[in-house]
Write a structure and sequence with these properties.
Layout (H helix, E strand, L loop, with lengths): L8 E6 L6 E6 L11 H22 L5 H19 L6 H5 L9 H19 L7 H12 L36 H15 L6 H15 L6 H15 L11 H6 L1 H14 L2 H40 L4 H11 L4 E2 L1 H8 L3 H14 L3 E2 L10 E2 L1 H7 L7
Antiparallel strand pairs: 1-2, 3-5, 4-5
């Protein structure tokens, strides 16, 4: 790796002789402010702030927002994991047969969901800090591939990034050595908890810095993308993670990595922040559009249930609410959710199929049937195909 100038940091020579290599020691983020975004860049930043704010405002007036939140967290988990190569789909994550995480890819996504829920809960008690990162990391890698990479512990050895099998001397990027890593993490903690920086700029720079520090042996990308949402929540821009920032980062993955590299090589923080704003605007627009479609679908489905189920409509409305958190179900799941007999549950499911709310996933199966809230899933599946 070569760098131009030293705004972004310096290369540090490590070890003597043939073992010698250079690691990257990033500049503290405080030292690169203020950024020079120019007139058009400042306008883009303002637009990004408005779009994310609109998303937040919309979420405050949405009925049953908690159920949509459950789905959005899962979508972000899937999209972020797909950037790392995970091949499962949205339906795979929701399939009741995968509850025991038999698929390694599904297990990765489920862990991301658990880590995200843990992080949101913990943020009511602790600031954004290394202790929180360790707790998130432990849940992210627990029981899945990467579990041998010391979940919940920052690295005590040098890591590097490059093609499979490359040596540290041939690596595309070598993060800071352990000593520099600890210094950089301390700087990052202080930066993330400053209250005098634009929240969008802070989220963008914090993500870049975390990815550059690469403090864990595995899982840095997923944790770093989760940090985007956590940073916005920490600054009060979002009250809930009703947002999936990894959507555009996945669609523009090559440019995403190129922009991060451009900061390390040439100190182009401004280019990264503007790219980040573009991605967040598109992601916020998509999330808000999806939310509007889901709310409209809820209203249409509720009307159909009231008109078509007569005296059993109360059970139907309860099932509709359940489906917005579990859009792929079995009759036994419905029975448990509604606290009714199996016969009653089967009758409600049959009514939902008749009304077009549910679809039999495999009509050829006589037993162990599974049903999908297909119209709901079609909204959430958008952008969720593996790379």
């Amino acid at each position: 790796m070569h760098i131009e100038g030293n705004r972004q940091g310096t290369l540090v020579t490590n070890l003597p002789g043939i073992a010698q290599y250079q690691s990257f020691n990033p500049s503290a983020l405080d030292s690169v402010l203020p950024l020079n975004l120019g007139e058009s860049g400042t306008a883009l930043l303002a637009r990004c702030s408005r779009k994310v704010g609109e998303m937040e405002g919309m979420s405050r007036f949405v009925p049953n927002a908690d159920m949509y939140l459950t789905m959005y967290v899962r979508k972000e988990a899937l999209l972020s994991s797909q950037i790392e190569g995970t091949q499962c789909t949205f339906d795979d994550v929701l399939d009741p047969s995968n509850n025991k995480a038999l698929s390694r890819d599904v297990a990765d996504v489920i862990n991301y969901v658990n880590a995200s829920e843990f992080a949101v809960a913990e943020m009511s008690r602790v600031p954004l800090c290394l202790r929180l990162f360790k707790g998130i990391h432990e849940r992210l890698l627990s029981g899945v591939r990467g579990q041998d990479k010391h979940p919940g512990e920052v690295r005590t050895s040098q890591n590097w990034i490059g093609p499979a099998g490359c040596t540290i001397q041939d690596a595309a990027f070598v993060p800071p050595n352990v000593e520099d890593m600890h210094r950089a993490l301390g700087d990052l903690e202080r930066f993330m908890n400053r209250d005098d920086i634009d929240p969008i700029i802070k989220a963008a720079l914090s993500h870049y810095q975390f990815e550059t520090i690469h403090p864990f042996l595995d899982g840095n990308g997923r944790l770093g993308r989760l940090l985007i949402t956590l940073s916005l929540m920490n600054d009060g821009v979002l009250s809930l993670p009703l947002f999936y920032p990894s959507y555009q980062l996945k669609l523009r993955r090559n440019e995403y990595y190129d922009r991060l590299t451009a900061v390390r090589v040439g100190g182009d923080y401004e280019g990264w922040v503007l790219f980040f704003c573009e991605c967040m605007i598109a992601a916020a627009e998509d999330a808000a559009n999806s939310l509007g479609k889901l709310v409209t679908l809820h209203e249409e489905s509720a009307r159909a249930i009231r008109a078509g189920m007569g005296r059993t409509a109360s059970n139907g409305l309860l099932l509709l609410e359940y489906l917005e958190g579990h859009p792929i179900v079995t009759p036994s799941m419905v029975q448990e959710a509604l606290l009714v007999s199996r016969t009653t549950a089967s009758g409600v499911v049959d009514d939902f199929v008749r009304l077009g709310v549910l679809r039999d996933v495999d009509a050829s199966r006589r037993r162990y049937k599974t049903y999908a809230y297909e119209d709901y899933l079609s909204v959430l599946r958008a952008g969720g195909d593996p790379l």
